[in-house]
Amino acid sequence: LYLSRLQLNFELEILLVVLALQLIKIELLFECIKFALPFRLLVLEFSLVLIDFSLSIFDFICE
C-alpha cells in the first residue's frame, strides 16, 4: 500500500511539472503572438503540434 501511494505521489508530481511546463509554454506563445502578428498562424500551428506532442508524452506516462 505504501509503495502504491509513493508511486501515485510521484505520478502526481510529474503531472504538476507537465502542467507547469504547459503554462510556461502557453505564456511564451502569447508573447510570440503579440510580437510576431504576421507569423501568428505559423506560431499557432507550431503550438498545436507541441501540445499534441506533449499530450502523447502525457498519455505514455499515464499508461
Run of helices and strands: HH
Q: How many domains make up the 3D coordinates? A: 1
Largest sheet: none
Quote the average pLDDT. 77
Number of strands: 0
The percentage helix is over 70%
Q: Radius of gyration, rounded?
A: 16 Å
Q: How is this structure best described in words?
A:
This protein has about 60 residues and is an all-alpha fold. The chain has one domain. The protein is about 90% helix and about 0% strand. The protein has helices spanning about 1-35, 40-60. Helix 1 packs antiparallel against helix 2. The two termini are about 20 Å apart. The model has no long low-confidence stretch (mean pLDDT about 75).
Write the layout of secondary structure elements.
Layout: H1 2-35, H2 40-62
Could you provide a short overview of the structure?
The chain is built from 2 helices and no strands. It has 63 residues and is mainly alpha-helical.
For this entry, give a set of tags.
63 residues, mainly alpha, 2 helices, elongated
